[in-house]
UniProtKB/TrEMBL annotation:
InterPro entries: Acetaldehyde_DH_acetylating (IPR013357), Ald_DH/histidinol_DH (IPR016161), Ald_DH_C (IPR016163), Ald_DH_N (IPR016162), Aldehyde_DH_dom (IPR015590). The lineage of its organism: Bacteria, Bacillati, Bacillota, Bacilli, Bacillales. Gene3D superfamilies: Aldehyde Dehydrogenase, Chain A, domain 1 (3.40.605.10), Aldehyde Dehydrogenase, Chain A, domain 2 (3.40.309.10). Residues 11-307 form the Aldehyde dehydrogenase domain. This is Acetaldehyde dehydrogenase (Acetylating). Keywords: Oxidoreductase. It comes from Paenibacillus qinlingensis.
Length: 509
């Protein structure tokens, strides 16, 4: 029965949180050396299982490409570990002698990790690494369609950590997740932080839980090929990026905007790279498949190959087709090719120049990608800086595959599988999340400046014999006398009238 499954999931979640809390209370007392040894063991174990976990993920979900998921798992383990290896997360982490301030690290506690179906094993590896590096425990709620591979990734990380000296239960999970159990996990009294990677509804639920949360928004990423770009290289990078793991990375390009003067050359190069340009009839067949309702992406095309998607729509394309492209001029929720498509499907826009291209990119971002990423191919640094200043995104990646550049694989950005969208996207941070986001920094601050605080003037008033409080009438009379003295009043001034007026004003006050 469904009810039994819900109850079982809820109980499993509660048990996992209980174990995680007990384990974390021990783990937070570990030394930096102990923490680093455990984190390295975890990273090594996950890296060694990169292929096995990638195969499990594709087998269970039917999404993506095994070879590409291997790369994701390797980045999530090896590259992420390299980026946090030397980070101090225990005790004193900084000392500013000139300001007499000492910074000390403290863990959040127990973290709830919500894992998406598109990156089910790499996200679990990455989150386990950064959580433990900051001396937290973590409990995972996988996507129901990817529960087995996510749990296996978490189990591999847990075994390696325990073998290296970590307390049992530091990494936990729900084997049969339900929406009720996921919501219960996020609201559990012993959960101190939420890492939510998934759809907008899930991220909103995380932010509404009453707990500190890092959620990420959608990534309707535009890519602009400016007239000065090296066209062959730009197109190859874009095709490699958009087809990487069949487009399941949220930072992958969703629409290409091309300067009109290079349009024909760009289209020819896309065809050389295995792209297929749909005619109007084929485009109309694909539109309802991409989006059965305005603004809604059909999950059946997510992570599928271009050939498989074309077959679903009844469109015949060559077997070697890597990418489906349709020319588009409109942008909106009711324009399927303009929304985020986590699949090798592209919209192709033509612009008169960079000013019009900027407007198109802004409209695409407003449709569903504000705060995330914009990709740019140009050799004009002034154009790159202009777009960086203007675009409402947290990452502008230049002359690199967006899917890999945004996560820090081909750029100097922090390697991460949780990409903040900042205030543009309603997130608390625009950073690529890592270990330092999962710890609290305490500050010991010594006084270094003297401030002279003046004493208040002492003013006495007549005291009423009956109440022991200042006599109101006598205070008013005193005030009036001071006013009259100040203005040099003569006997012609009606003192009683002034007193009456003052009483009326004070009554209103």
């Amino acid at each position: 029965m469904q009810l039994d499954k819900d109850l079982q999931a809820m109980q499993e979640m509660r048990d996992a949180v209980k174990r995680a809390k007990a384990a974390q209370s021990q783990f937070q007392a570990f030394s930096q050396q102990d923490v680093d040894r455990i984190v390295k063991a975890l990273a090594d174990a996950a890296f060694g299982k990169a292929f096995e976990l990638a195969s499990l993920a594709v087998e269970e979900t039917g999404l993506g490409v095994v070879e590409h998921k291997v790369i994701k798992n390797q980045v999530a383990s090896r590259d992420v570990y390299a980026s946090i290896r030397d980070l101090k997360t225990v005790g004193v982490i900084n000392e500013f002698r000139d300001k007499k301030i000492i910074e000390l690290a403290a863990p959040f506690g127990v973290i709830a990790g919500i894992v998406p179906t598109t990156n089910p094993t790499s996200t679990a590896i990455f989150t386990s690494l950064i959580a433990l590096k900051a001396r937290n425990a973590i409990v995972f709620s996988p996507h129901p369609s990817a529960a087995k591979c996510t749990v296996e990734a978490a189990r591999i990380c847990s075994r390696a950590a325990v073998a290296a000296g970590a307390p049992e239960g530091l990494i936990g999970w729900i084997t049969q997740p339900t929406m009720e159990a996921t919501e219960g996990l996020m609201k559990h009294a012993d959960i101190h932080l939420i890492l939510a990677t998934g759809g907008s509804a899930l991220v909103k639920a995380a932010y509404s839980s009453g707990k500190p949360a890092y959620g990420v928004g959608p990534g309707n990423v535009p890519v602009y090929i400016e007239k000065s770009a090296e066209i062959a290289k730009a197109v190859q990078r874009i095709v490699d990026s958009k087809t990487f793991d069949h487009g399941t990375i949220c930072a992958s390009e969703q629409a290409v905007v091309v300067d009109r003067v290079i349009r024909e050359m760009v289209m020819r190069e896309f065809k050389n790279q295995g792209a297929y340009f749909l005619n109007e009839e084929e485009k109309k067949r694909l539109e309802p498949l991409i989006s059965p309702a305005p603004g809604k992406l059909n999950s059946k095309i997510v992570g599928r190959s271009a050939k498989a998607i074309a077959d679903m729509a009844g469109v015949h394309v060559p077997s070697e087709t890597r990418l489906l492209i349709a020319e588009e001029s409109q942008i909106g929720r009711d324009v399927p090719f303009s929304i985020e498509k986590l699949a090798p499907v592209f919209a192709f826009y033509t612009a008169a120049g960079w000013e019009e291209a900027a407007v198109i990119c802004e409209q695409l971002l407003d449709l569903g990608g504000r705060g995330h990423t914009l990709a740019l191919h140009t050799t004009d640094d002034e154009i790159a800086r202009t777009f960086a200043l203007r675009m409402p995104v947290s990452r502008i990646v230049v002359n690199t595959p967006s899917a890999l550049g945004a996560v820090g694989s081909t750029t100097g950005l922090q390697p991460s599988f949780t990409l903040g969208c900042g205030s543009f996207g309603g997130n608390i941070t625009s950073d690529n999340l890592t270990a330092h986001h999962l710890m609290t920094v305490k500050r010991l601050a010594y006084g270094i400046k003297q401030v002279d605080i003046p004493k208040p003037a002492i003013q006495t008033y007549p005291v009423s014999k009956s109440t022991g409080q200042p006599n109101q009438e006598e205070r008013i009379a005193e005030f009036v006398n001071l006013v009259l003295d100040k203005v040099g009043a003569t006997g012609h001034v009606d003192k009683a009238t002034v007193i009456k007026l003052v009483q009326q004003v004070m009554a209103h006050i």
